Amino acid sequence: ILDLPSSKPTGNCGINNQYDGDSKFSSYWDNGDNLFRMCASAERNDLVINSNGNVGIGTALLNTQDKLTVLHSTGWAINAKVTEEGSMAVRGETSAAAGTNYAIYGWHESIAGSAGFFLANNNEGECVGVYGRADGDNYPNSCGVVGHHYYGGIGVGAWSYTGDLIKAYAGDYPGGTLRFYVSNAGNVYADG
């Protein structure tokens, strides 16, 4: 239970309690921007809750449209893990009736890597790396998976060490009737 002062004290942090080494717990109640702040030796370790209910970890610079902002220099900014059957580590959901909305949105500005990386890391399993499903019937805009390169790169790339490069089925996943595939050797087969 925290007994927080009713006004912002001078300096960056209010209550300072030295526990061990350089570890400090600091917090204050602020009638302005921040309701609560736990300060460490550097801002990258701070926990902030502002007056709009927005939460910042590792930063006090919060955007009003972002409910949670995590700033981290290396490793994992957020690591979610579940161990029970039928669970989801991360879930994104949108429910707006109009506009362009994204349940999960990744923005990548580095030179190498990818905006999204998915690994089904079980060599004996039947898992897919990426599963895309769309229930709309607006053809051709409603697609399970879209690959879109805006400039001169590849829209969709397919690699396999020994398996077929592409397979296309008519029907419902994971069943259906095989209609088209490209073998690892580059042979093309079509039914029809």
What does this structure look like?
The protein has 192 residues and is an all-beta fold. Helix content is 0%, strand content 19%. It has no helices and 9 strands. The chain has strands spanning 15-18, 24-27, 34-38, 47-50, 55-57, 68-70, 166-170, 177-182, 188-190. It has a 4-stranded mixed beta sheet, with no helix packed on it. A hairpin with an 8-residue loop joins strand 3 (34-38) and strand 4 (47-50). The N and C termini lie far apart (71 Å). The relative contact order is 0.06.
How many beta strands in the DSSP annotation?
9
In the sheet with the most strands, the strands line up as 3-4-5-6
Low-confidence stretches: 1-26
Rg from C-alpha positions? 25 Å
- Looking at how many chains there are and whether they match, the oligomeric state comes to single chain
* Structural class determined from secondary elements: mainly beta
Shape: elongated
